[in-house]
Amino acid sequence: MYLSEYLSKNCEDTSLNKVIINLSIAANKISKVIRNLNNDINIKGVSKTKNFDGDIQKPLDILSDEMLMELMRNAPVSGYASEEQEGFVDLKNDHDLIVIADPLDGSSNIDVNVSIGTIFSIMSQNNLPLEHAFLQKGSKQKAAGFFVYGPQITLFLTFGKGTIAFGLDENKSEFILINDKIKIPKSTSEFAINASYSRFWDKATSNYIKDCQEGKDGPKGKDFGMRWVGSLVADASRIFNRGGIFLYPSDKRLKNKQGRLRLTYEANPLAMLIKEAGGKATNGIKDILDVEVEDIHQRSPLIFGSSEEVEEFIYYSKNL
Ligand code: AHM
Ligand code: MG
Questions:
Q1: Is the distance from the beta carbon of residue 232 to the nearest atom of ligand 1 less than 6 Å?
Q2: Cα–Cα 20 to 30 A to 289, which of 123, 159, 227, 262?
Q3: Which position among 13, 65, 96, 102 bears the catalytic label?
Q4: Are 174 and 198 within one domain?
Q5: Does any domain span residue 185?
Q6: Is residue 184 part of a domain?
Q7: What is the pLDDT of residues 234-269, one digit of tens each?
């Protein structure tokens, strides 16, 4: 079943449907630019600029942001915000929905041909001025999802009735239903963390990972494997498919004191998808969806995945 048909059968909110369809059109366009080496934008070594926060912006980051914004202008959306722009864009209309996006997550992986993606979060403006609407908690999201530009182009989507996966049929330029009820296994023996930062970790993370590594010989009593792509959408796809726990905790580096990943366009959409698939997402203390938002670009620790293992990490955080 195609995405449009699925939405019209299962989601009564026609405005929301239109926004999701336009996001899928943007993703289809972005994926084509990524895959086509015969264009200036994709050639290695083209100049890189920095965004307002000092992150390297590749031409593809900027192009993806522009493509998304263009398609949001043609959807019932009143405001758009993204990782690539400091403030939000007021689309100057009376529509109710707002969209926050990470247009190209994991873009440091473009040159090495590893999966990257687009993450999005959709909320109602709820009659708030836009500057307040963008600071609503993750629990207010109406829909969330991410596209993965990998060997296959996939979409993980939720509009509050479970988490669903679609894959792109490139001949027809249509997303087709792959799985209408993703269920993340409760238990897992696979963790994902950038272990090169271990010297900066807090006690809870250090002890938790040490116990995973001790495997059968340690308190957890089972062996663990480790996977880390370094691209949130790719690590998350794996977890939606076969379970696991992903950890990007806060650490002692000055710029990572509040974590590295962004709350509004990385942690919140991931947390809604995870919850709808039976998993859990936390900052170590609080459910991600309940964390207060003070800034569009606020960072947050993010730990998510199989519920039993995430609960165990929370236990380590609260008891150390
Ligand atoms: P980006 O949004 O600037 O691409 O950064 C987000 C990425 C995630 O995809 C990934 O999980 C993380 O940053 C990797 O960080 P690190 O390079 O510190 O391991
Ligand atoms: Mg990102």
A1: yes
A2: 227
A3: 102
A4: no
A5: no
A6: no
A7: 999 999 999 999 999 999 998 888 999 999 999 999
